[in-house]
């Protein structure tokens, strides 16, 4: 009958078993198969109940996301859920693994729900820029009330079985084979004469303060609109008949599906998975990866060690002296206590990590047995070369030697060893045990199994790993330097750092560039400017007003003063009154007459600078695909997920429009705004960055 739905019977129970690996997404074939199997069960006079169950690791993970954006195919999911609910037979869903989105909507179309104790349910559509579109916003609040339904719809979180039962979503929890416990439950229901129980016939949820709830959700979403649409859909469940509520939900769902935000988020969903699938790594076995060494226990080294410990790896950390070693241990123990408090690890796991899995030493000999070493010492080529020379001498043959450098040349570091094939860059982001991004920097001579091991490490640490080539700043920091410079230029020309920060947080960034600079430490940029001063192009515009603040010893948040003033012990900040004065002095010295900028112009210039440099990074092969750049910005730089990444944003704007802006800005500053050749080619040939992504995926 159907390839993806198997039909069998057990006495008076028809069993509809979904077999659509890997996660039983509700493809057209699944929807049609379920609908036909319902017809078949209803046509059989012996059948009294229908059990829907999933094969493999999940009941149903939701609608098939690959079908979004394609012409709709019958039967559609809302109709299927309504058709299941309208059955004269008693319908039961037996859930295991995850039951998400459209999967939960199918289960809510059933009359009874049984689940494994480990099952989780949820409506994660908000993470795709959507809301539930097959009755989830209409049926769920009839079981849970409006507030709990709104929380589920707007957070998209996975709800554990126990909580779902308390909320009224699950009727019974029973451990065992999902089909067996489902059939037994169906038999009980039949023998007790349990009635059909259609949620659509239950009372509508009571009213709440809809506008205040909507405003709260929109504020939390920082520009993302689908959460608010979810609130309005639940409001419709309360205020309209079930049928009209379904129509209202459908209208909102269709609007969200057509939005750029859902396109951005769906792009993120697929590419955060695709980014570490490198064709050249197929069939390449990674090297052993049981124990790791970390050199330097400062901000990054301590974070990397914590991440490795939390992933159950043994760590040997080397510092320069006893005091530094004690400080490093203190930092790591602090982070592990944080993980304990947040429930990430148990007390006994915490104690084992601190006492036996972590060794802190001052002697490199302790590294003789580790599988991989990550160097995180000062950002200074001479220091790094010395460290790599020592590592070369003590590490066992085949051990991987990695650097966490932010900008330095990994080829040059590799050349300081007798085994450049074993050297790689592993660029983490601060705080390293929390930030999801890992750039795997492949140097000229890096062996392919060393690359595979870099990706394997990323996987074990729960990171999104992206391949990067060697250049100043790799993918992320190179692009960051460029769009930061665009912001600096706007300041010189008259926009205030505070307007820029606000315009960009309104756009959806977690923080504006000047607040970020304060957080990272203004000394970093100051040192970089000094390092690059010698090789500077004569046309390069580099503001120096902020260096004056650094010369006075103010480095941003850590010293209490930067672009903003920070009160000790508080996250609150206010603009620093010294900054406008310093800017005005520099403008006067450069004979610049400041002008006004609209927020829109700020965003356009910032984004165009980002896109132009990102395109060059792809053009030069530093990033493998445009989507790789997008994932770097999303997971390392606070780029709003609902915009998909800079190159997805550019596609959605229209590349011709983006290029026209860059060419217009180039008339003022031809050196900074030189258009990317790749961008020009795409515009000429009428193609998009996504076309390049697709071509690479083939
Ligand atoms: N549609 C299509 N493909 C899906 C899918 C879906 N709903 N969910 C997962 N997949 C694919 C993934 O892309 C991945 O493919 P790949 O192997 O080619 O990369 C594969 O299934 C396995 O997924 P994961 O690697 O993510 O496996 P995990 O075990 O780590 O996670 C999961 C499983 C929790 C189900 C996770 O994949 C997930 O969160 N999926 C999305 C769930 C979701 O958003 N559902 C709502 C869809 S929208 C909807 O239902 C609209 C409705 O209201 C009308
Ligand atoms: P940090 O100054 O906090 O820590 C450096 C540590 O290395 C110090 O504790 C120092 O005692 C130790 N050290 C110096 N020389 C050593 C040696 N020869 N042997 C053993 N230990 C030694 O610096 P941070 O911020 O942790 O940076 C480290 C590296 O990570 C740099 O290359 C930096 O560019 C890079 N990085 C930094 C990021 C950040 O946000 N801070 C982000 C990503 C990379």
UniProtKB/TrEMBL annotation:
Record flagged with keyword 4Fe-4S: no
GO molecular function: (3S)-3-hydroxyacyl-CoA dehydrogenase (NAD+) activity; enoyl-CoA hydratase activity; isomerase activity; NAD+ binding
Domain of life: Bacteria
Domain 3-hydroxyacyl-CoA dehydrogenase NAD binding: from-to ranges: 292-468
Catalytic reaction equation(s): a (3S)-3-hydroxyacyl-CoA + NAD(+) = a 3-oxoacyl-CoA + NADH + H(+)
Localization: Peroxisome
Keyword Lipid metabolism: yes
Broad class of the protein's primary localization: other
CDD domains according to UniProt: crotonase-like
Pathway(s) the chain acts in: Lipid metabolism; fatty acid beta-oxidation
Gene3D superfamilies: 1.10.1040.50, 2-enoyl-CoA Hydratase, Chain A, domain 1 (3.90.226.10), NAD(P)-binding Rossmann-like Domain (3.40.50.720)
Keywords assigned by UniProt, alphabetized: Fatty acid metabolism, Isomerase, Lipid degradation, Lipid metabolism, Lyase, Multifunctional enzyme, NAD, Oxidoreductase, Peroxisome
Domain 3-hydroxyacyl-CoA dehydrogenase C-terminal: 473-566, 602-687
Cross-referenced Pfam families: 3HCDH (PF00725), 3HCDH_N (PF02737), ECH_1 (PF00378)
GO biological process: fatty acid beta-oxidation
Family: In the N-terminal section; belongs to the enoyl-CoA hydratase/isomerase family. Belongs to the enoyl-CoA hydratase/isomerase family.
Protein name: 3-hydroxyacyl-CoA dehydrogenase
Organism: Sulfitobacter guttiformis
Phylogenetic lineage: Bacteria, Pseudomonadati, Pseudomonadota, Alphaproteobacteria, Rhodobacterales
């Amino acid at each position: 009958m159907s390839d993806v739905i198997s039909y069998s019977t057990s006495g008076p129970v028809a069993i509809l078993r979904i077999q659509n690996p890997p996660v039983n997404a509700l493809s057209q074939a699944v929807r049609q198969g379920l609908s036909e199997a319902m017809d078949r069960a209803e046509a059989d006079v012996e059948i009294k109940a229908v059990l829907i169950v999933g094969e493999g690791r999940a009941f149903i993970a939701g609608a098939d996301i690959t079908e979004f954006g394609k012409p709709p195919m019958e039967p559609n999911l809302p109709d299927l859920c309504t058709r299941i609910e309208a059955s004269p037979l008693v319908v039961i869903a037996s859930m295991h693994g995850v039951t998400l989105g459209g999967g939960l909507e199918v289960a809510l179309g059933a009359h009874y729900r049984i689940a494994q104790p480990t099952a989780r349910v949820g409506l994660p559509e908000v993470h795709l820029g959507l809301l539930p579109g097959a009755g989830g916003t209409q049926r769920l609040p009839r079981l849970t009330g409006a507030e709990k339904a709104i929380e589920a719809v707007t957070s998209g979180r996975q709800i554990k079985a126990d909580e779902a039962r308390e909320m009224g979503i699950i009727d019974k929890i029973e451990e065992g084979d999902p089909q067996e416990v489902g059939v037994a439950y169906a038999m009980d229901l039949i023998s007790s004469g349990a009635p059909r129980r259609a949620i659509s016939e239950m009372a509508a949820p009571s009213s709440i303060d809809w506008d205040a709830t909507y405003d709260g959700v929109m504020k939390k979403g920082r520009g993302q609109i689908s959460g608010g649409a979810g609130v309005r859909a639940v409001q419709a469940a309360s205020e309209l008949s079930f049928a009209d509520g379904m129509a209202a939900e459908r209208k909102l769902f269709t609007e969200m599906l057509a939005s750029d935000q859902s396109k951005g988020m769906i792009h993120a969903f697929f590419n955060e998975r695709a980014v570490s699938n490198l064709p050249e790594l197929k069939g390449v076995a990674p090297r052993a990866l049981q124990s790791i060494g970390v050199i330097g226990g400062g901000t990054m080294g301590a974070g990397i060690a914590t991440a490795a410990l939390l992933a159950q790896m043994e760590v040997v950390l080397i510092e320069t002296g006893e005091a530094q070693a004690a400080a490093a241990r203190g930092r790591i123990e602090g982070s592990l206590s944080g993980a304990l408090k947040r429930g990430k690890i148990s007390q006994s796991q915490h104690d084992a990590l601190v006492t036996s899995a972590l060794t802190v030493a001052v002697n490199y000999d302790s590294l003789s047995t580790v599988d991989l070493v990550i160097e995180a010492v000062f950002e200074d080529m001479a220091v790094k070369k010395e460290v790599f020379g020592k590592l070369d001498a003590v590490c066992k043959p085949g051990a991987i030697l990695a650097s966490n450098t932010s900008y330095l040349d990994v080829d040059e570091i590799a050349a300081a060893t007798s085994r450049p094939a074993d050297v790689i860059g592993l660029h983490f982001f601060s705080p390293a045990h929390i930030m999801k991004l890992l750039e795997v920097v492949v140097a000229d001579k890096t062996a392919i199994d060393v690359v595979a091991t870099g990706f394997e490490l990323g996987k074990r640490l729960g990171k999104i790993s992206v391949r990067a080539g060697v250049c100043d700043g790799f993918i992320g920091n190179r692009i960051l330097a460029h769009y930061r410079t665009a912001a600096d230029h706007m300041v010189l020309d008259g926009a205030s750092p505070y307007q820029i920060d606000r315009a960009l947080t309104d756009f959806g960034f977690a923080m504006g560039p000047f607040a970020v600079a304060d957080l990272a430490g203004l000394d970093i940029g100051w040192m970089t400017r000094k390092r690059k001063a010698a090789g500077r192009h004569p046309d390069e515009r580099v503001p120096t007003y902020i260096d004056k603040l650094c010369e006075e010893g103010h480095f941003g948040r850590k010293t209490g003063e930067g672009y903003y003033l920070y009160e000790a012990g508080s996250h609150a900040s206010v603009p620093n009154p010294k900054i406008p004065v310093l800017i005005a002095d520099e403008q006067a010295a450069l004979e610049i007459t400041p002008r006004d900028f609209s927020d829109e112009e700020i965003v356009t210039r910032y984004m165009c600078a980002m896109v132009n440099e990102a395109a060059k990074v792809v053009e030069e092969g530093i990033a493998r695909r445009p989507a790789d750049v997008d994932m770097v910005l999303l997971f390392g730089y606070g780029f709003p997920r609902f915009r998909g990444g800079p190159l997805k944003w550019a596609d959605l704007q229209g590349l011709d429009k983006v290029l026209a802006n860059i060419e217009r800005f180039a008339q003022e500053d031809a050196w900074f705004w030189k258009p990317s050749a790749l961008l020009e080619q795409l515009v000429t040939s009428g193609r998009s960055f996504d076309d390049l992504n697709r071509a690479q995926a083939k």
